[in-house]
């Protein structure tokens, strides 16, 4: 059994962000297995999730209930980062607690090595795998983040990350903070879903299709598709501040978590090197606009992001050397996107500061000079 961030793969010898003990340089064999696609094969993502939903009517046996569930994430993982952002924007911190795994892992499970004693203080377990096994003993698929765990039983409810965020937005409305934005407005859902499909296949998953390509042909095709879509998105965003409508939506969150990792890891580590994000003016300004919006940039831990990719993917980076760059200070420079209009939170308001226990350490964030 192999584990990963919600970046799952269905090619026999592929493991994307898989997990168990924190990944270190003394376990290269496991990490080599965790980051290779068989020669000649294309990277294909496994999307077989635990599809149980937490809903207002509890139709799957898990009703919305504040304090009952724990969202388990890793700041390094883009798929988990979506859930972190949505939870924060909607003000669900008091309704849904959050457990944080470390950025590196081995072949069995994400681990709570950031917590004292390596034990999650709420679930009382050292590995996310334990929660999966409580739901399905000997769980045969990937131990992925994000995952929502039922605290009373200690069992995973779902790891279906596309629905985790939309359910936060639609099913948990009774527990949103006053002024919470509507991130998935009913009148725009068809357009949001359409945008999300293209962003997922070509960009969110496209960078992985480049990085884990098993042949030159599959890499070339993934590379072409990725930058074709990024050019299309640049064109779309050249005349509008956000992807859909005039406010931040689920679509912006899904694109942001890939863009914010682009120069730090995808450009070099995954060979997505036609252009850096900073060399794509529209997308760079758009990404900075979101990064500087409360709830986005304050969830980003660049140190954990780089540690995860460069230490875990030993098939791509066998030495385990984590690069010192890139320069991150540009994330705080003016973006001038306000001239396009738009209201980031619509009729709502920005979230307040993050909870003290959820603040990204200053040394892992953007260096602030002066």
From TrEMBL:
Tell me which residues this entry annotates as catalytic. Answer: 77, 208
* Entry-linked CDD domains: GST_C_Omega_like
Q: Which InterPro entries match?
A: Glutathione-S-Trfase_C-like, Glutathione-S-Trfase_C_sf, Glutathione_S-Trfase, GST_Omega-like_C, GST_Omega/GSH
Domain GST C-terminal as annotated: residue spans: 185-309
Task: Enumerate the residues binding glutathione.
Answer: 110
Supply one GO CC term from the record.
cytoplasm
Q: Which Pfam families match?
A: GST_C_2
Q: Where is this region: Disordered?
A: 339-360
Q: Where is this site: Lowers pKa of active site Cys?
A: 266, 309
Gene Ontology molecular functions = glutathione transferase activity
Q: Which PANTHER family match?
A: GLUTATHIONE S-TRANSFERASE OMEGA-LIKE 1-RELATED, GLUTATHIONYL-HYDROQUINONE REDUCTASE
The name this protein carries in UniProt is: GST C-terminal domain-containing protein
Q: Which organism is it from?
A: Gordonia rhizosphera NBRC 16068
């Amino acid at each position: 059994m192999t584990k990963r961030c919600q970046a799952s793969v269905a090619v026999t010898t592929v493991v994307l962000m898989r997990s168990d003990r924190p990944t270190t340089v003394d376990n290269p064999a496991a990490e080599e297995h965790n980051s290779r696609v068989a020669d000649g094969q294309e990277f294909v993502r496994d999307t077989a999730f635990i599809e149980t939903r937490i809903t207002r009517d509890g139709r799957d046996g898990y009703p919305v209930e504040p304090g009952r569930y724990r969202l388990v994430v890793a700041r390094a993982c883009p798929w988990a980062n979506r859930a972190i952002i949505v939870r924060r924007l909607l003000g669900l911190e008091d309704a849904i607690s959050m457990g944080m795994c470390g950025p590196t892992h081995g072949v069995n499970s994400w681990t709570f090595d950031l917590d004292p004693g390596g034990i999650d203080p709420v679930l009382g377990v050292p590995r996310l795998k334990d929660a999966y096994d409580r739901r399905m003993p000997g769980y045969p698929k990937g131990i992925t983040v994000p995952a929502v765990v039922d605290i009373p039983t200690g069992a995973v409810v779902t790891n279906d990350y596309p629905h985790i965020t939309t359910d936060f937005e639609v099913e948990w409305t009774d527990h949103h903070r006053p002024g919470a934005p509507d991130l998935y407005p009913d009148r725009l859902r068809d357009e949001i879903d359409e945008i999300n499909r293209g962003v997922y296949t070509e960009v969110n998953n496209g960078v992985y299709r480049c990085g884990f390509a098993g042949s030159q042909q599959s890499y070339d095709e993934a590379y072409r598709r990725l930058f074709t879509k990024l050019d299309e998105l640049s064109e779309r965003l050249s005349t509008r501040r956000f992807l859909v409508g005039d406010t931040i939506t689920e679509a912006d969150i899904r694109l942001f978590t890939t863009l914010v990792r682009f120069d730090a890891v995808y450009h070099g580590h995954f060979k997505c090197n036609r252009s850096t994000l900073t060399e794509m003016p529209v997308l760079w300004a758009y990404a900075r606009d979101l990064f500087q919006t409360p709830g986005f940039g304050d969830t980003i831990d660049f140190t954990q992001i780089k540690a995860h990719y460069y230490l875990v993917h030993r098939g791509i980076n066998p030495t385990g050397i984590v690069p010192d760059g890139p320069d991150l200070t540009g994330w705080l420079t003016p973006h001038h996107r306000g001239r396009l209009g738009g209201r980031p939170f619509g009729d709502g308001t920005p979230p307040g500061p993050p909870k003290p226990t959820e603040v990204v350490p200053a040394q892992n964030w953007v260096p602030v000079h002066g």
